[in-house]
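Translate sequence into structure tokens.
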Amino acid sequence: MRPADLTRRKQGGLAITMLTAWDALSAAVVAGAGVDAVLVGDSLAMVVLGHATTLPVTLEEMLHHCRAAGRGLAAAAAHHPPLLICDLPFLSYQCGADEAVAAAGRVLKETPAVAVKLEGAEPETLTVIDRMVRSGIPVMGHLGLTPQSVHQLGYRRQAGDPVSQERLRRRALALQEAGCFALVIEHVPAELASELSASLVIPVIGIGAGDGCDGQVRVTADLLGLTSRQPPFSPPLMEGRALAVEVLGRWVREQGPAAAPAPTPATRPASPAAPHC
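Result follows.
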């Protein structure tokens, strides 16, 4: 898969599926499921590294995990691997176009990823995206609930009023004009996301944005029920955490204490049985 393939899927009326991965094992699992795209998301800061937000994860950590995910994809889907995208972490692209292009360039040079994803559509971000795209780096945008802005926006639903909805429309169009090949829309009204999917040429991939998008993306650990808390728009498909604890606990209990040694065989004939009364 290449970025342009997602646009072709949209033009053909085919739904786009994207799941996250954070290592070789998770990447092999989602590739085996047949997804179109795999995102090494900065959600791994919370899912894997135990942070409370996505903010602490570093570029070096993202590169490390993306390389691992790439190896998992190569092993699981050698003939038709999905599109591999890597999130740019907080402060890797907000400090100027030169640093941003260098960070995104490292992703393409040092990992098997063929695209990066970043959040927002502020003027500075649009400048960065323009530089990246003109440098040959495919970029996926992200609007709505943007986790790197958690201290500013929280985790609540976004674009709930007409003013903020119009702002999101303008930002989505600006990202398309800046050269983004696709756009993730998170936790916004379904009607707005459906409208954007119809009006934009690039694919709109939703998460908590209704069923009218061109595709859907989810955090794999959420769908498998492995995280302690799921967002309201991503209920687990199975109780994976509870199931794993139960199965592994059963194995632990089956080990039990060391078995008592068998009694030593007698070295002489047993005495005759006592007569019954």
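Note: The radius of gyration is 25 Å.
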